[in-house]
Every structure is written in C-alpha cells, then in structure tokens.
C-alpha cells in the first residue's frame, strides 16, 4: 500500500470568499485513516468555514478540491457526502428537545450511512448511545439532558450511520474540566472503534490529549501542521493567538 492510499480525507488548495473576505484561502491538508487530526486557530480564522466546505453544508468551495475516500466531493450534495461516510457535528448542540433520546439518534440515522433496515434498527441506535456512554432510559425526553449529555447525543446521532470520518466542531465548548475529561475519554473510545476524526477545538488540552497531528489556521490559511506539542510551542502559533511580538 502506498502512502496516499492511507489518506481518507484531503483538501487541495480549497478556498472560499464572502464578498471581499477570503475566509478560507487555499487550504491543503490530508487526514489518514484512523487518525485524530486537530484544527485550532483564533476566532474567525476560518475553521468552521473549512468544515462547511469539506461537507458541503451549507456551502461549497469556490476553488480547490476535496477528496474523500478516493472520490472528488466538492460538488457533491451534503446527502451524498454523508451517505459516503463523512459526517459532522455543529458548534451548537442540535438536539430536538420535544423528542426522546432514542428518537434524536434515529434522526441522525436517517441521514446517510448503511441500508434502510440497519439504519432504523433500535439496536443500532442503542449501540451509538453506548459508544458515547449515554446511559439511562433511551425513551426519556431529551430536554432534561445536561450540556455534556446533549453533546453525547449529538455525537451519537452522527455515529449511528457508521461514518468512517467524523468532523467535530468545538465539542468541548462550554464544558467544565471534569466534563472535558469525560469528553476526551469518550472520543478516545470512538477512535477505538475505527472512526477517523477531525476536531476543531479552542480547548487545546483536548487536542493535546487526542490529536496525532494538528494544524493551526490564521486568516484562512494553515500556518503550521505537526504534532500538538510542536505546533503549540511554535512562535508563529503563539503570535497568531497573542499578536505580533508575543513569541519573542
Ligand atoms: N456565511 C458567511 N457570510 C459572510 N461571512 C462569513 C460567513 N461565514 C463565515 N464568515 C466569515 O468568515 C470568517 C471565518 O469564519 P469561521 O466561522 O469559519 O471562523 P472560525 O475559525 O470557525 O471562528 P470561531 O473559532 O470563532 O468559530 C469570519 O470572518 C466570519 O465572519
């Protein structure tokens, strides 16, 4: 097997402008199978826009290519991309509060993934709940869930269709340190099931704990890629977060 066949998701010179703002400015990156890849960078750097471009939700790149599992996907529909096995979560927990925990996971299963019978199997939904360690009665309403449990539920909804790659947008946002640790444990467990992950995160300790490699974006461009310890001590990264001269 050559090196490239290990790459499951790649961006080649991907770009997107909003009017005169180049939000993503020619980003190239590649993620290998079974890897956890972190994305960090200051507010407005273009991280979420990059996720949007990788998944086609709700926008497409205006330049460059996205390759997922050997397919060029930048012009594919979000549904096609999800069915092919590339799923994502959002910064805000998308939980339907009037529905039960189980029904929320079923909604995730309706979008992408394996054959119909398998998708709608309650057993499959329960497996996804187990994978995120969300115990208790699956028929209870979702509106009473704590923040970490809402996050677990959103991740279960993304996992239930059996994606090969999961993109997580700031999963640790708003969590206290104990819940951050719980999140790290559950994502390590998800990784153990063979799901490749790309994680946008401002809580850098989460990336230090989980990521094999990470990249830092600034003004729409990747400024450094490497192992978390190397990246986070790089003077260019310190300057991107704290301003010019901060690293001196
Ligand atoms: N639909 C849009 N229309 C216009 N500008 C947009 C749109 N989406 C994003 N932007 C702009 O693109 C830039 C990148 O935004 P993006 O949300 O990708 O940054 P981010 O790195 O994810 O930031 P944060 O860490 O705060 O979530 C910002 O200047 C933002 O205001």
From TrEMBL:
PROSITE patterns: ABC_TRANSPORTER_2. Residues 9-244 form the ABC transporter domain. Keywords: ATP-binding, Nucleotide-binding, Transport. One of its GO terms (molecular function) is ATP binding. Pfam families: ABC_tran, BCA_ABC_TP_C. SUPFAM superfamilies: P-loop containing nucleoside triphosphate hydrolases. InterPro entries: AAA+_ATPase (IPR003593), ABC_AA/LPS_Transport (IPR051120), ABC_transporter-like_ATP-bd (IPR003439), BCA_ABC_TP_C (IPR032823), P-loop_NTPase (IPR027417). This is ABC transporter ATP-binding protein. The lineage of its organism: Bacteria, Bacillati, Actinomycetota, Actinomycetes, Streptosporangiales.
């Amino acid at each position: 097997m050559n090196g490239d066949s290990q790459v499951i998701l790649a961006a080649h010179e991907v770009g997107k402008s909003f009017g005169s703002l180049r939000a993503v400015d020619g980003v190239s990156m590649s993620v290998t199978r079974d890897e956890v890849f972190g994305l960090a960078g200051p507010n407005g750097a273009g991280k979420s826009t990059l996720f949007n471009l990788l998944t086609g939700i709700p926008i497409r790149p205006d330049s460059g290519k996205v390759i997922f599992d050997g397919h060029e996907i930048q012009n594919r529909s979000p549904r096609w991309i999800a069915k092919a096995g590339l799923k994502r979560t959002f910064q805000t927990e998308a939980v339907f509060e009037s529905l039960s925990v189980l029904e929320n996971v079923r909604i995730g299963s309706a979008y992408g993934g394996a054959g119909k019978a398998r998708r709608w199997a309650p057993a499959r939904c329960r497996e996804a709940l187990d994978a995120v360690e969300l115990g208790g009665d699956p028929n209870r309403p979702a509106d009473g869930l704590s923040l970490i449990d809402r996050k677990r539920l959103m991740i279960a909804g993304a996992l239930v269709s059996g994606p090969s790659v999961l993109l997580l947008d700031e999963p640790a946002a708003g969590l206290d340190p104990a819940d951050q640790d719980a999140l790290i444990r559950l994502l390590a467990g998800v990784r153990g099931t063979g799901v490749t992950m790309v994680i946008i995160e401002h809580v850098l300790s989460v990336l230090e704990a989980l990521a094999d490699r990470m990249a830092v974006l600034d003004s729409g461009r990747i400024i450094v890629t490497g192992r978390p310890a190397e990246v986070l001590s790089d003077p260019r990264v310190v300057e991107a977060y704290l301003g010019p001269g901060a690293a001196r």
